[in-house]
Design brief:
Length: 355
């Protein structure tokens, strides 16, 4: 457990002591001490404060990776302008998941909130550790983040495809999975790409910005009424469902606050069903790593309309939940290792998917 606040360390000790099957084997108050301690005691899980003086959470992750130590790391982040980009960077570097530090609320409420969040994450950790097919991070190392955005290359409008849209859904482990997919999609993708990643509202813009800087495609946080164009990636903002709608000659993004689906808003089911209503079977879907089964109902409706579903293979999933649900339901046209997902999406788009 790593946190520079003595008060918060004590609260986390209290909370973790209430969770069955959890033993705290060490605590550290700064990033430098944390790296040495983690290397020495080799814990299964680390709770890692994002913002610390000296070496922060992202730097701790990178130092551990250099030393060949890779516990499943749960980032502890505050809802601040500085916290969101760093947390997103940590998730893209391979952190397992994150929890938020509530601020300005009753201490007992804070403890209960943190306990609920941590229990859910630790159950997911236990499941991922129990399955020999899954791992804490994809096997392929992530590319370094570029220092400046890549130039957006022009589309080739004549490129033919039998699909009108791509929909990607993901949850736990999603930021790193998206990092392995979105930047590798070809620059001439002639359809829009819609993404649901389960993440709070304050984090979506940072995720979109980072992916945009790595990608030849334009990556945007979706806004209500935003015009949909080919070769653009629209990420559903946290806390809002994303759908699509025809308005006159244009297709636009539609955001709404309708009830959560399977506890999720944005919901992959909501987006897939909206896309299936608009585009029919001309939707290519990909279900990536994540807890739960969001996307199952949407994939079922999409398949009924003649659409196509790819699912991430178990090996490399941080949590093999969402892809497993659609696979077990017999809705998957192809199971794909993460490192091949971008190329297989391209192959399906342009009719070269034989074999």
């Amino acid at each position: 457990m790593v946190d520079d606040s003595a008060l918060y360390r004590q609260m986390l000790l209290t909370v973790l002591g209430r969770i069955a099957g959890v033993e705290v084997v060490g605590t550290a108050a700064d990033g430098n001490a944390a790296v040495d301690l983690i290397e020495r005691v080799k814990p299964d899980v680390v709770t890692l404060d994002v913002q610390m003086p000296g070496r922060d959470g992202i730097e701790v992750l990178r130092a551990l990776k250099q030393r060949g130590v890779s516990p499943r790391s749960i980032m502890v982040s505050s809802l601040t302008a500085q916290g969101a980009p760093t947390t997103v960077a940590a998730l893209m570097e391979g952190a397992f998941d994150f929890i938020l530090k509530p601020a300005g609320v009753d201490l007992h409420v804070t403890r209960d909130t943190i306990q609920s969040e941590l229990t859910e994450k630790l159950v997911a950790v236990r499941e991922s550790m129990a399955s020999p097919q899954t791992s804490a991070a994809p096997s392929r190392p992530a590319a370094p983040l570029p220092e400046r955005p890549l130039p957006k290359r022009p589309l080739r409008p004549t490129t033919a495809t039998r699909f009108d849209a791509v929909v990607i859904g993901t949850s736990t482990g999603g930021p790193q999975a998206l990092r392995a997919v979105i930047p590798l999609l070809p620059a001439d993708v002639s359809v829009p790409v819609f993404v649901v990643q389960h993440i709070p509202a304050q984090y979506t813009a940072s995720l979109a910005e980072r992916l945009d800087g790595m990608s030849p495609l334009r990556v945007l946080e979706a806004a209500d009424g935003m015009l949909v164009g080919p070769g653009q990636v629209f990420i559903a903002p946290g806390g809002k469902h994303l759908g699509v709608e025809q308005r006159g000659e244009q297709v636009v993004c539609v955001l709404d606050d309708s009830p959560r689906r399977r506890g999720c808003r944005p919901s992959v089911d909501h987006l897939l069903e909206s896309a299936a209503r608009l585009y029919g079977g001309r939707v290519l879907a990909a279900v990536l790593t994540g807890m739960g089964c969001d996307g199952l109902d949407g994939c079922r409706e999409l398949k009924q309309r003649g659409g196509t579903v790819l699912a991430q293979a178990a090996a490399g999933c941080v949590v093999y939940g969402m892809p497993k649900a659609v696979n077990d339901a017999g809705l998957v046209d192809e199971t794909v290792p993460l490192e091949q997902m971008a190329s297989r999406l391209s192959a399906w788009l342009y009719g070269t998917n034989a074999g």
